[in-house]
Write a structure and sequence with these properties.
The structure is a homodimer. Chain A is of the alpha/beta class. Helix content of chain A is about 35%, strand content about 15%. Chain A has eleven helices and 13 strands. In chain A, the strands form three sheets. The first copy, chain A, has a seven-stranded mixed sheet, sandwiched between helices.
Chain lengths: ~425, ~425
């Protein structure tokens, strides 16, 4: 099975004018062949591919879709502001209101700076920490994703040693590895970067060990380094606060993005008073950073965050999905591992090093109108319903059965054969 | 004179929750005290400050406003697409159509990659050049702005030596300085970065010397390095093509941003076939890079670019403004220097090293409803009319007269006194 005819036509045209036909995290190069590359529209929890096929979307735009695609209230706030003014010669008062609102929501934060990419926020965190400490070295967990800027790349194309200078790697949730990294940094430690949970691609997710989080805080307190929690991906799907509030640890800086304006383009760096002076010393800016319409959308989204049960609702749906998948997989004699917060599920099969089973199962799910990801954490949104989860579970039941007869489930997965190395 | 009462109130609130009260290129910290920091709305060529005062805006959002704020046709294209879908789990076919359209418009380009910040596009250019050549060193003109990423910063806060490694500076339009830089790079030259014109802050602009542009091309052809023209700021205000088409030189890569979706957030890297393979090898992405609605707006904007006389109209307005300002300044016995393309004017006063005259004049203009910038190039937009220019010239006449009596025009400009050092 392959993607639809229109999708294939668009891919051919894309091959001519876009390097590789597509690039970045939304490229389907490492997904099963049946996955569409191009989409035509979306509403609520649903997405239509370029061939008009409806899909229940468990990727939610890789995070940005928190309250549902095309949420009427949020998009009305956006469009109303767009009609008044958006990208102007300076910000509107909405920037102040949004900073006030965000600071009220997030426990550790005394101030906010807005930007566009998630990577802008992590890069600003890096710069603020270096400006604050007048040191250079940072500790990052091996395999953690903090954006696509050269300093946080794992690929080598176009990246120089200088880009990744002054970095020490540790293992997430491994206290002694963190201590060793801090020792290696000596008196040059500027920051510890922490993902709010381990949400690396291809491997099981892991919630933060409170002892690890506390150790990161202790090392920063002892050395004067700043603790950064990169909440770009997990923010607002774990807590109505920085995600490390769940383990009782406050960072000095936290980066936010993706979903706090429900898909409208805005990201943020939040910080505590300790880091305020350094934050005002760095130079950071962008052509569209002070756009007013995404700020209006962010205020509407944060209002929903504060006044609705969106998080409890998503958690309940996520529990239903997780327990339902576990039951059905077991009934078919298939071993699966589910990890991460239930609002950000990842499903991997036992004994599936090149994800051939995962690919076969996700392909089966897609053919039944359910868009899953075989190796990247997925995302729930608040527009999903119990009926949606039930229909996903029905499809899962059929798909688990089909996997047992699917020839793909026994063949080497050529797209991910590098995982076998 | 100071900014309005509401603007002052918003600044006070901003001071509490935004480091320094505001940051980046739209901070008014280095502008006269009377300049408002916050704005409430915009339409066409006009902007209203937070106190509701209308201003004829010669900054055009620092570039993004090309066809007029709130252009009905472009914003309708945007909103129509927003209602269908914007930030999704993958791109829409609009991405392909926009790449095709852009490649048709820009002579040197065979492919396009879209991103969000102008700095994303210049950073991708850097990475593509390094991936293509497997070398590291780049040549940049001293003082040129290519974004706020650490590698192109002039400030030091939060920036490490590693961030700016492998860079050699030359002087814009100085052929021998460019040759010396290339010689210094030896066999490690990856790219020459060129502003399409010298549009550095605080100093006169300079159009590109064709001999300099050709020399950059020759060095790249000889060494295998890539030539990058950073058209983020000047693109579509100089030509309906890469700005160096005006001097007959084709780059390998060009970066675009700010105005090609008339203020909606999208930027781009365009390149020739030579660089295609390297472009497909780098990892570059962002949460909002594949948004469909800004692509719909970009298609509408580029359609206007191709089918209207917007550029000739802006040039005619710019000529009128330039000659009118020259006449009026001379009539008042004031020496001014006007530089750059007429669509991107900069006005500096003779014998005004700390811009005290410039500040006094711009303050006078602002009090008459004309928003100018005393040290950054300004921008015209296609929504301006001859009547607008005439009213600006009337205000200029009164303002030149007033400068002669303005005590600020004889006092040290404390905000820019660093320029005297």
């Amino acid at each position: 099975m392959s993607a639809g005819a229109l999708d294939r036509q668009w891919r051919e045209r894309a091959d001519a004018v876009i390097p590789g036909g597509m690039y970045g995290h939304q490229s389907t190069r490492l997904l099963p062949d049946s996955y569409p590359q191009f989409f035509s529209r979306a509403k609520g929890a649903r997405l239509w591919d370029a061939d008009g096929r409806p899909l229940l979307d468990f990727m939610c735009a890789y995070g940005p879709n928190l309250m549902g695609y095309g949420d009427e209230e949020i998009d009305s706030a956006f469009v109303d502001q767009l009609r008044r003014g958006d990208t102007l010669t300076g910000p509107t008062p909405l920037m102040v209101e949004l900073a006030e609102r965000f600071v009220r929501l997030v426990g550790h934060a005394d101030w906010a700076m807005f930007c566009k990419n998630g990577g802008d926020a992590t890069q600003m965190a890096l710069m603020v920490a270096r400006a604050h400490t007048r040191r250079k070295t940072i500790i990052i967990a091996r395999g953690a994703y903090h954006g696509a800027n050269p300093w946080c790349q794992t690929r080598t194309a176009g990246v120089t040693p200088g880009d990744k200078a002054y970095q020490i790697l540790c293992d997430y949730n491994d206290v002694s590895s963190l201590e060793a990294a801090a020792e290696q940094a000596g008196d040059d430690l500027a920051a510890i970067f922490a993902a709010p949970l381990k949400h690396d691609a291809f491997v099981d997710q892991a919630l933060p060990d409170p002892a690890y989080a506390q150790k990161a805080r202790d090392i920063c307190d002892r050395t004067g380094a700043l603790l950064v929690v990169d909440d770009v991906r997990a923010g607002l799907r774990v807590a109505r606060d920085c995600s490390w509030a769940t383990v009782g640890v406050s960072p000095d800086l936290s980066s936010w993005g993706k979903c706090f304006a429900n898909g409208h383009p805005i990201s943020a760096l939040l910080g505590s008073d300790k880091a305020r002076k350094a934050a005002s010393a760095i130079y950071a800016t962008g052509s569209f950073w002070f756009q007013a319409a995404p700020m209006a959308a962010a205020l509407a989204t944060l209002n929903r965050v504060e006044t609705s049960t969106y998080l409890e609702d998503m958690m309940s749906l996520g529990e239903h999905l997780r327990s339902g998948l576990a039951e059905r997989a077991e009934a078919h004699g298939l071993g699966i591992r589910q990890s991460g917060p239930v609002t950000m599920p990842l499903v991997l099969f036992e004994d599936d090093p090149d994800l051939r089973l995962g690919f076969a199962w996700c392909s089966q799910m897609l053919s039944r109108g359910i868009y899953l990801h075989p190796w990247h954490n997925m995302f729930l949104c608040a527009a999903m319903t119990e009926t949606d989860i039930s229909s996903a579970l029905d499809a899962a039941d059929q798909s688990f059965r089909a996997v047992k007869q699917d020839p793909r489930s026994t063949e080497v997965n050529s797209k991910l054969s590098f995982l076998l190395a």
